[in-house]
């Protein structure tokens, strides 16, 4: 069984509305917004009918079809006649690869992620902070029948994520406080930190020891250990994590796993010319 985390919050997601993030942002092109919305919806599925896609995107079927025709002309989406479904096109892959080419963390991180997965037998993730969410950009799955799984591009609330908390802990106080003022802390499990005070306390402990723990805060029965990856300016630009069932990420194994994750983050940091603000403990 593959665990594909998709928590359901008891309150709205933690990502702030764009108009609250950028109150002075200029007006956008509505047709382009709708087309990009279709791409985002398609990226979360392996194929969708026009009816399914238009419904989820909140568009009339005729509008969605017109936009899809334009996107298809540029190979950003593709139409499969036998299944009568739309999916992401090959040109979208080429565009996405541009992000990977310019991002040294992804290139340097892959071999180290594989090394960590082989050493621990657990799934390894790489994610970046975007507002009050983390976006998963790479993953190396383990072979265990029960394991953590995230789609590349998936978003998760930072306060209920190992990587999210590892990166939040590295923010300047004023930046963190600004996020807490405009973002909710939805509850996913009884262990989710849902008050700013509780989150601040945990982030302080994370900052001191250099690694974070998602202790069944997003999913009951699943744990995640994470550490930040730093650039040449000492800024935390991404996070590396180890995810798996709580029975395997037990209290007894936790210190060793945390050290392995932190050492992996340190090696990736070194490969991109970065450095840790806090040296590794012995």
TrEMBL record:
<dbReference type="InterPro" id="IPR036388">
    <property type="entry name" value="WH-like_DNA-bd_sf"/>
</dbReference>
<dbReference type="InterPro" id="IPR014757">
    <property type="entry name" value="Tscrpt_reg_IclR_C"/>
</dbReference>
<dbReference type="Pfam" id="PF01614">
    <property type="entry name" value="IclR_C"/>
</dbReference>
<feature type="domain" description="HTH iclR-type">
    <location>
        <begin position="29"/>
        <end position="90"/>
    </location>
</feature>
<dbReference type="InterPro" id="IPR050707">
    <property type="entry name" value="HTH_MetabolicPath_Reg"/>
</dbReference>
<dbReference type="InterPro" id="IPR029016">
    <property type="entry name" value="GAF-like_dom_sf"/>
</dbReference>
<feature type="domain" description="IclR-ED">
    <location>
        <begin position="91"/>
        <end position="274"/>
    </location>
</feature>
<dbReference type="Pfam" id="PF09339">
    <property type="entry name" value="HTH_IclR"/>
</dbReference>
<feature type="region of interest" description="Disordered">
    <location>
        <begin position="1"/>
        <end position="29"/>
    </location>
</feature>
<feature type="compositionally biased region" description="Pro residues">
    <location>
        <begin position="1"/>
        <end position="10"/>
    </location>
</feature>
<dbReference type="InterPro" id="IPR005471">
    <property type="entry name" value="Tscrpt_reg_IclR_N"/>
</dbReference>
<protein>
    <submittedName>
        <fullName>IclR family transcriptional regulator</fullName>
    </submittedName>
</protein>
<keyword id="KW-0804">Transcription</keyword>
<dbReference type="InterPro" id="IPR036390">
    <property type="entry name" value="WH_DNA-bd_sf"/>
</dbReference>
<keyword id="KW-0805">Transcription regulation</keyword>
<keyword id="KW-0238">DNA-binding</keyword>
